[in-house]
């Protein structure tokens, strides 16, 4: 499996970055044409869509609240833990990709400084699920960046060979990613364009992570057996973190993260004790 992932990554071309950059440029041009490159214009142009999506998705509060935490990097990486053993190339690309996503998220949020819906709209006019977020960090959606960063790495890592299967696989991954990303609108934390721009940015981060891994291989040590005790310690700490989270918020998504960590620990221990 790891060799196939490496082959898939080796076949990727930098030209794949052109389309997402073009899409982000088109969003910027659209906002410019609508005189919406300012906070008030940006919010006003999205109000109808925000209210419509928020109203529909908020009918499923428990589902929205659990799915939205899939955009938490700790949760997603915990579920991906098993790939350290069976396909370490995934993690070798995912780690630099995560660093890019963190960098872009912090940079763009500070640059645009758009207030979240609850910080500028009447809070009684839409549904808020979970914590009420009111900071100036709406654009882009960090959860959307995270989800698409890791999904992009997984998508290209396990890309099928046949064209028909490639299209189906790509469509499935994008669909799953958009469902999770849109929960940010469903819980009242982001506007639709926050999610769209975040998803595209995450796709770019995923590709940059793969290209960085290919050129520098900074994290080639991840799959090496001698480093497993260190990684197992980190995973055990993560288990404790999620157990504590469950004590305050008993969410099924945290149990899934723990299962992912436990399976990963079992796989690493099994490999490590083998001669």
UniProtKB/TrEMBL annotation:
CDD domains assigned to the protein according to its UniProt record, in alphabetical order: PAP2_like
Domain Phosphatidic acid phosphatase type 2/haloperoxidase: residue ranges: 89-210
Membrane-crossing residue ranges in chain numbering: 12-32, 67-86, 93-112, 132-156, 168-189, 195-216, 228-246, 252-269
SMART domains (alphabetical): acidPPc
Recorded superkingdom: Bacteria
Keywords: Membrane, Transmembrane, Transmembrane helix
InterPro entries: PAP2/HPO, PAP2/HPO_sf
Xref: PANTHER family: AT30094P, SPHINGOSINE-1-PHOSPHATE PHOSPHOHYDROLASE
Protein name (Swiss-Prot/TrEMBL): Phosphoesterase
């Amino acid at each position: 499996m790891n060799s196939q992932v490496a082959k898939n990554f080796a076949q990727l071309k930098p030209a794949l970055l052109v389309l997402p950059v073009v899409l982000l440029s088109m969003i910027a041009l659209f906002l410019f044409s609508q005189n919406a490159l300012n906070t008030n214009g940006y919010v006003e142009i999205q109000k109808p869509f925000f209210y419509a999506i928020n109203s529909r998705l908020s009918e499923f509060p428990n589902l929205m609240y659990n799915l939205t935490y899939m955009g938490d990097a700790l949760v997603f990486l915990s579920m991906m833990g098993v790939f350290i053993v069976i396909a370490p190339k995934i993690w070798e690309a995912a780690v630099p990709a995560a660093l890019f996503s963190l960098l872009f998220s912090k940079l763009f949020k500070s640059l645009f400084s758009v207030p979240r819906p609850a910080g500028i709209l009447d809070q009684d006019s839409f549904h808020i699920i979970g914590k009420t977020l009111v900071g100036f960090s709406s654009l882009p959606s960090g959860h959307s960046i995270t989800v698409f960063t890791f999904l992009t790495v997984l998508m290209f890592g396990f890309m099928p060979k046949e064209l028909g299967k490639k299209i189906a696989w790509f469509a499935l991954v994008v669909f799953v990613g958009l469902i999770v990303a849109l929960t940010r609108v469903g819980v009242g934390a982001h506007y639709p364009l926050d999610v769209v721009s975040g998803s595209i940015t995450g796709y770019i981060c995923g590709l940059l992570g793969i290209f960085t891994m290919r050129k520098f291989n900074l994290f080639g040590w991840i799959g090496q057996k001698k480093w497993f005790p260190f990684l197992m310690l980190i995973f055990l700490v993560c288990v404790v973190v999620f157990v504590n989270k469950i004590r305050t918020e008993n969410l099924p998504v945290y149990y899934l993260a723990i299962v992912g960590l436990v399976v990963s620990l079992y796989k690493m221990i099994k490999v490590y004790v083998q001669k």
